[in-house]
């Protein structure tokens, strides 16, 4: 079965391509390489023994998207990762984000709706919940007004898909990721942040390897046990596997609604200081860090209630925080060697 993975050379996309190929799917990866490198294909090949078909397409080009799907009417499903994802950049350049994350989505859906097998998986985010009132967060927690254009693109994206599925043959699953970290255990593929990382774990590994002088911990006065913010860190391989399970649910027509939503997390919250301590333990390296003031827009805590994914999808995150951090560290050492 032929599956299209947009953003297939990116961080989560590349790990998902690996898991799809491991399950025997034929993958076509689409990417414009705006935040990835074509060498990722070799990493995927070294892990799976197979290089996926790759087409360099910018999904903002409507004609290119239409042309692609005209040539591939036998596609069985699309997993849509392609998007811009830097929250700060989205505040500075909102139109870039609306163009890339919304226009591209619309073009892909227009083409997909015309296909006989219109199965669609969407990369959404726990940012849609804002600071939820209750922990852990269930899928029916209310969606809060977005605090950044990036977050808004995820909310609007979910709405566009829901409206479209009502009146087309599209069946969709919205996957709300918590905090993906780590790399493939082989260290053949991993996260390649451009510039200064916005996320905690790449910043930790870059500090540990000597690329950054020190890690800033934003705030130790949150109402949490150690005062630092709490997130739900999920190993990217577990996350990738959830995409395959979700796709199979659609392909086997087991979905009970045209659009279903699942949280993807571990169900456990870890504070920034816990992540630092765990990293120091698995790497054997003391980390140079400093507590500074809170960062604007950061919330106190977010971790998932994963019951729905566990019971309905039959998927559960398996890796520990130690394993995820060890894989991130192995990857950092590999790319800097
Ligand atoms: N990484 C996270 O923390 C996180 C959390 C929640 C949701 N998400 C979402 O998951 C998805 C994947 O995230 P990621 O971390 O793998 O990001 P990434 O930047 O590593 O991967 C995205 C890929 O899409 C490609 N791309 C971007 N715009 C494109 C376009 N117009 N045409 C073709 N290709 C394009 C990029 O080159 C990149 O390879 C995104 O939609 C992101 O918003 C990520």
TrEMBL record:
Entry EC number(s): 5.1.3.2
Quick one: a GO biological-process term for this protein?
galactose metabolic process
Oligomeric and partner information: Homodimer.
What is the name listed in the Swiss-Prot or TrEMBL entry for this protein? UDP-glucose 4-epimerase
What the entry lists under CDD domains is as follows:
UDP_G4E_1_SDR_e
The pathway noted for it is: Carbohydrate metabolism; galactose metabolism
In terms of PANTHER family, this protein maps to: UDP-GLUCOSE 4-EPIMERASE (PTHR43725)
Question: Would the keyword NAD turn up in this protein's UniProt record?
Answer: yes
Report the residue ranges that make up the NAD(P)-binding domain in this protein.
5-326
The record's catalysed reaction(s) read: UDP-alpha-D-glucose = UDP-alpha-D-galactose
* Superkingdom, natural source: Bacteria
Q: Does the keyword Isomerase apply?
A: yes
Give the family from UniProt. Answer: Belongs to the NAD(P)-dependent epimerase/dehydratase family.
According to the UniProt record, one GO cellular component term is: cytosol
Record keywords, A-Z: Carbohydrate metabolism, Isomerase, NAD
Q: Which GO terms describe its molecular function?
A: UDP-glucose 4-epimerase activity
Give the required cofactors: NAD(+)
């Amino acid at each position: 079965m032929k599956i299209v993975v947009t953003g297939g050379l990116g961080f989560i996309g590349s790990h998902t391509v690996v898991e799809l190929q491991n399950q025997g799917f034929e993958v076509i990866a689409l990417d414009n390489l705006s935040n990835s490198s074509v060498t990722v294909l070799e990493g995927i090949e070294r892990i799976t023994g197979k290089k996926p078909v790759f087409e360099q397409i910018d999904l903002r080009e409507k004609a290119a998207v239409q042309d692609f799907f005209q040539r591939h009417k036998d596609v069985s499903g699309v997993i849509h990762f392609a998007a811009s994802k830097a929250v700060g950049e989205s505040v500075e350049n909102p139109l870039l984000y609306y163009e890339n994350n919304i226009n591209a989505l619309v073009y892909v859906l227009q083409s997909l709706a015309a296909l006989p097998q219109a199965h669609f998986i969407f990369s959404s985010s726990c940012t849609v919940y804002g600071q939820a009132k209750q922990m852990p967060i269930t899928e029916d927690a209310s969606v809060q007004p977005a605090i950044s254009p990036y977050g808004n693109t995820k909310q609007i994206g979910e709405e566009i898909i829901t409206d479209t599925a009502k009146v087309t043959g599209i069946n969709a699953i919205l996957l709300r990721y918590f905090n993906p970290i780590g790399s493939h255990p082989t260290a053949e593929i991993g996260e390649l942040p451009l510039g200064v990382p916005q996320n905690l774990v790449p910043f930790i590994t870059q500090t540990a390897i000597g690329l950054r002088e020190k890690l800033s911990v934003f705030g130790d006065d949150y109402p949490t046990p150690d005062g630092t913010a709490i997130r739900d860190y999920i190993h990217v391989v577990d996350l990738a596997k959830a995409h395959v399970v979700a796709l199979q649910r659609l392909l086997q027509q087991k979905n009970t609604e045209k659009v279903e939503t699942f949280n993807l997390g571990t169900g456990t919250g870890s504070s920034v200081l816990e992540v630092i301590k765990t990293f120091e333990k698995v790497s054997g390296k003391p980390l140079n860090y400093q507590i500074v003031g809170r960062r604007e827009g950061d919330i106190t805590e977010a971790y998932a209630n994963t019951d729905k994914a566990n019971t309905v999808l039959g998927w559960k995150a398996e890796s520990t925080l130690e394993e995820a951090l060890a894989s991130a560290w192995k990857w950092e050492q590999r790319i800097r060697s």
